[in-house]
């Protein structure tokens, strides 16, 4: 088995080995002593290689922070001492360019550490043979390909490696984002059977941005090699008789420019007809006729054009626009009656969107492209010019119809289902990060209860870049932001929140930490509603070009004094997005819950606090709208109380004698929607 797949197995609770190990006892002892890992199966195969794997995934030898006695040594320094310490550090790193080794405080006192006695959770894992691991990996790849969601970098790398080794062995590729990446990276024309001609523009857009750094598809400058590849893809689409000319009319001008740029020469009569249509025939696209019907006020005809030619998903994507133009209650009722879709993901997305409520305030438009989240907040001018308004009553009607459709679509699909009540805190994985993956990563919006008496210690550490900043942004009920970062913490260090210092000499290894004692923080900042933890690369290098790990620990309020303690790590993952800014996770101060965000933001923002975070609030409400427990309840033919008699088990618990293929855990992003079909 390739080493690449072992971290994936680790994140799912498995080690893989070939045979018994002579160092089994030492390995078992090290796993327990360093990481609180208890091996429940295959103990005789434990090896020191597994210890090294755990060290890499969870973290063990982490660079020391600027204040090595954090948090106590930070609190013992005065505001002036903190300022002087950091100013001297900045002068050495940015003024004199001294970056040969990580910088540290010159004023903090001696460091005293106590023996580790903090209460922390035992991690149960199994050791399986590589033969047993093969079907797990195969199912993992198959599930990823069946998912319509974009993949994170770890998932995509696994698929890419699999395709390069085994070819195109799967029967479906539901995500066009995944498909165009694979096509570009492998140049394997067997993948073309999963696309139609209109999808070629998506491929060209991806190549234009990722290979040429150009966002304007109307100004192509492809090399001959790329032109030949795109030509070969188009020819193969014609061979497969998958030319959907009507949909191509929607990007007729782009198609015309592309065909001219690659000097396309048709090789069949179908290709000649297509070339003629794109170059000269008037636009007969579905959307042009839809817009014509809308401009004439013929709502019902417009709806029928969309539904009959583009499917119900197209109606769902244009619902607000259509309903805002309805002039009678009968028209609204007709549109609502046509809401039907076999696409589970689209239905869930629409339920979440319309459950946010209707507001005349500036809206946030959030979407993901090329692995980064793009956010646009309406300007006052755009708000005043907006015509697409719907009432609260209409939004409520839509949510009701959408839920009814989803329930009817899923009803009885999964047979007997056992549902762990804890899964009501796990969000539905429909909008996951395309840039991050690792241990303990959950669907965006998922919640984890933070034990009383524990504090949260967020961490980030890095190599191959001088300065990555870990920051915390507080949001009050009105969306007003308060920044806790290297720019402000010299004046805010106290028992409620503490910062380990701004490390700016970390090219060969640097780290930063935030400690938050939630009970003390609520007393000190009673107006704060949420906390949002961010990572940003101050020097402007994207995360993809450095080595950055982020995560969090749950520590005792009076901890051992050891800054990074692997036993207490709840999550640790690589940040690999092609941007300089990432939202890591949040805390709901009212409920004392940890909330997953795991979102990369497009752009080259170098400082936290300079971006509007209000769009993230919807993720704090995600599980109250729909969650894994409520979704699987819809799909169950019968809810059972015994997991061993169930056809599907939705739980993170371990059950003796249970077939692993029947279980869906919170980390099984790719498996959930495969089961739901």
3D structure, described in words:
This protein has 677 residues and is α+β, with helices and mostly antiparallel strands. It folds into 5 domains: 73 residues, no CATH class; 132 residues, no CATH class; 125 residues, no CATH class; 60 residues, no CATH class; 190 residues, sav2460 like domains (Lipoxygenase-1), CATH 2.60.60.30. The chain has 26 helices and 21 strands. The strands form 5 sheets. A 6-stranded antiparallel β-sheet has the order 7-16-15-9-13-12. Strands 8-18-17-14-10-11 form a 6-stranded antiparallel β-sheet, with no helix packed on it. Helix 8 crosses helix 9. The mean pLDDT is 87.
**Approximate helicity band:** 25-40%
CATH architecture of the largest domain: Sandwich
Shape type: globular
CATH class of the largest domain: Mainly Beta
Q: Order the strands across the largest sheet as they lie in space.
A: 7-16-15-9-13-12
Number of strands: 21
CATH topology of the largest domain: Lipoxygenase-1
Biggest sheet layout: 6 strands, antiparallel
Hey, roughly how much beta strand do the residues contain?
Answer: 15-25%
Figure out the total of helices.
26
What does the radius of gyration come to?
27 Å
**Terminal residue distance:** 30 Å
Average pLDDT works out at 87
Secondary-structure class: alpha+beta
> Low-confidence stretches at least 5 residues in length (pLDDT < 50)?
none
| Total tally of structural domains | 5
């Amino acid at each position: 088995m390739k080493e690449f797949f072992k971290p994936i197995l680790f994140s799912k609770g498995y080690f893989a080995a070939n045979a018994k190990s002579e160092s089994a006892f030492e390995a078992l002892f090290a796993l327990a002593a360093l990481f609180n890992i208890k091996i429940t199966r295959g103990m005789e195969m434990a090896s020191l290689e597994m210890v090294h794997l755990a060290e890499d995934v969870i973290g063990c030898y982490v660079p020391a922070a600027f204040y090595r006695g954090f948090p106590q040594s930070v609190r013992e320094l005065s505001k002036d001492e903190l300022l002087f310490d950091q100013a001297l550090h900045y002068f050495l790193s940015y003024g004199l360019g001294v970056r040969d080794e990580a910088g540290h405080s010159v004023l903090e006192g001696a460091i005293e550490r106590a023996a580790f006695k903090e209460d922390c959770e035992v991690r149960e894992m199994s050791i399986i043979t590589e033969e047993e691991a093969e079907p797990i990996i195969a199912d993992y790849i198959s599930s990823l390909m069946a998912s319509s969601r974009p993949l994170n970098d770890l998932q995509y790398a696994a698929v890419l490696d699999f395709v390069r080794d085994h070819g195109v062995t799967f029967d479906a590729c539901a995500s066009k984002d995944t498909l165009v990446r694979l096509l570009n990276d492998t140049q394997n024309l067997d993948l073309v059977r999963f696309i139609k001609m209109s999808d070629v523009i998506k491929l060209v857009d991806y190549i234009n941005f990722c290979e040429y750094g150009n966002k304007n598809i109307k100004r192509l400058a492809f090399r001959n090699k790329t032109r030949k590849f795109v030509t070969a893809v188009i020819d193969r689409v014609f061979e497969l008789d998958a030319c959907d000319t009507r949909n191509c009319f929607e990007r007729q001008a782009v198609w015309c420019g592309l065909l001219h740029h690659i000097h396309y020469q048709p090789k069949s009569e179908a290709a000649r007809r297509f070339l003629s249509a794109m170059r000269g025939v008037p636009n007969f696209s579905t959307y042009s006729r839809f817009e014509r019907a809308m401009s004439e006020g013929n709502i019902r005809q417009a709806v029928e054009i969309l539904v009959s030619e583009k499917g119900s998903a197209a109606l769902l994507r244009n619902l607000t626009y259509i309903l805002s133009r309805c002039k009678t209650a009968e028209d609204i009722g007709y549109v609502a009656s046509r809401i039907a879709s076999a696409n589970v993901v689209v239905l869930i997305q629409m339920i979440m969107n319309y459950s946010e409520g209707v507001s005349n305030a500036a809206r946030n438009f959030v979407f993901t492209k090329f692995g980064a989240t793009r956010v646009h907040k309406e300007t006052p001018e755009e708000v005043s010019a907006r015509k697409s308004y719907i009432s609260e009553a209409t939004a409520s009607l839509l949510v009701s119809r959408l839920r009814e459709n989803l329930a009817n679509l899923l009803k009885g699909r999964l047979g007997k289902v056992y549902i762990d009540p804890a899964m009501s805190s796990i969000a539905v994985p429909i909008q996951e990060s395309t840039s991050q993956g690792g241990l303990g990563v959950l669907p965006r919006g998922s919640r984890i209860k933070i034990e009383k008496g524990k504090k949260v210690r967020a961490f980030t550490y890095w190599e191959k870049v001088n300065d990555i900043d870990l920051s915390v942004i507080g949001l009050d009920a009105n969306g007003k932001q308060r920044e806790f970062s290297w720019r402000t913490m010299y004046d805010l260090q106290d028992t409620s929140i503490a910062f380990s210092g701004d490390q700016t000499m970390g090219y060969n290894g640097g780290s930063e930490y935030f400690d938050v004692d939630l009970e003390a923080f609520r007393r000190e900042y009673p107006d704060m509603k949420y906390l949002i933890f961010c990572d940003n690369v101050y020097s402007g290098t994207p995360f993809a070009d450095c080595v950055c790990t982020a995560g969090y620990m749950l520590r005792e309020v009076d901890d051992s004094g050891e800054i990074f303690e692997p036993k207490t790590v709840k999550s640790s993952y690589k940040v690999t997005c092609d941007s300089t800014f990432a939202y890591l996770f949040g805390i709901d101060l009212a409920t004392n819950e940890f909330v997953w965000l795991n979102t990369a933001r497009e752009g080259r923002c170098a400082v936290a606090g300079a971006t509007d975070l209000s769009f993230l609030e919807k993720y704090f409400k995600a599980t109250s709208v729909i969650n894994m427990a409520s979704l699987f309840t819809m799909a169950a033919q019968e809810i059972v109380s015994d997991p061993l008699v169930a056809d599907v088990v939705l739980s993170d618990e371990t059950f003796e004698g249970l077939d692993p293929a029947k279980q869906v855990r919170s980390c099984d992003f790719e498996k959930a929607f495969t089961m739901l079909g």
